Amino acid sequence: MAKTWSSTPGVERTEGVTCALCGTQEPKPHLACEAPGGSTFAFVRCRRCGLVYQDPRPVFEDLRRRYGPEYFAYELANEENFFGLMRLGLADVAFDRVTAGMPSPRTFLDVGCATGMLLQWMQGRGWGVQGVDVCRESAEYGERVRGVHIHAGTLDEARFPNRSFAAVHFSHLIEHVNDPRAFLREVRRVLRDDGRAVITTPNIDGFQARLFGARWRSAIVDHLVLFSRRTLLRMLAEEGFVIEREVTWGGLAAGTAPVWLKRPVDRLAKRLGFGDVMLFLARKS
């Protein structure tokens, strides 16, 4: 099956890692994969907690260089599709209804905001918006074309004050982060006490992941951690978040099955919770 965009790594330094969820180093082989260009990489599963992660992995200084002009071109070409999916996700967890009673200022942060299309839309709905993206070309484009402020770098590099935002959104971002626990801690720090986080990420326990294994479209070299519902819920709870709503979607990827089969499987995946992608609306506890 066709995978999502994946970089073609050059010569990079790598490091062995411990499990980001339980802190142990008890990995067992899980997926042996091939990156564009022919290099190989591997995902392991923690014997103790079940988290799936890439080991060894590139050091962060080398990893961030992947998100340059080629990545910007991919985001720009797909921005309408990604924007539509994010809007559907927000509607599925009733984001507007949940946040309707929030006092002013209604401030919204999108981490991994790409070209800023969601930020522009939220701004038009009365939110004060800011974005963060490690791709400098995307950040510059969003500021120039969308008229929204985007910090070029990581969330911790942005150095937002404590309790700055009523909502923090990050779609298909946490799986790219080298320390997801520290990232969630920073999200919680910048959220107001009544704030909400919206998290979207691939589901390693979904039907597609189980069916395709190493050929799964999200088993790519740029994904450092692949969460299941159980492992992500545990990390969110331990970092001070309470889940209010959740949804999954995506039973069969386009092109892998005829439409007459894909549509009912997609409906079942959403209803029964075995979708390819999962989204959580979480409240700061």
Report on this structure:
The protein is of the alpha/beta class. The protein has a domain at 67-206 and 232-284: Rossmann fold. It is 34% helix and 26% strand. Strands 8-7-6-9-10-13-12 form a 7-stranded mixed sheet, sandwiched between helices. A 4-stranded antiparallel sheet has the order 2-3-4-11, with no helix packed on it. A hairpin with a 5-residue loop joins strand 3 and strand 4 (52-54). The longest helix is centred in the first third of the chain and has 24 residues, at 69-92.
Short structural summary:
This protein is α/β, with parallel strands linked by helices and about 280 residues long. It has helices spanning about 60-65, 70-90, 95-100, 115-125, 135-145, 155-160, 180-190, 205-210, 230-240, 260-270; strands at about 15, 25-35, 40-45, 50-55, 55-60, 105-110, 130-135, 150, 165-170, 190-200, 225, 240-250, 275-285.
| Corresponding CATH architecture of one domain | 3-Layer(aba) Sandwich
Which range does the strand content fall in?
Answer: 25-35%
CATH topology of one domain: Rossmann fold
How far do the termini sit from each other?
40 Å
The class by helix and strand makeup works out as alpha/beta
Low-pLDDT sequence parts: none
Instruction: Give the full name of the CATH homologous superfamily of one domain.
Output: Vaccinia Virus protein VP39
User: What Rg do the Cα atoms give?
Assistant: 18 Å
| Top-tier CATH class of one domain | Alpha Beta
**Largest sheet: number of strands, sense, barrel closure:** 7 strands, mixed
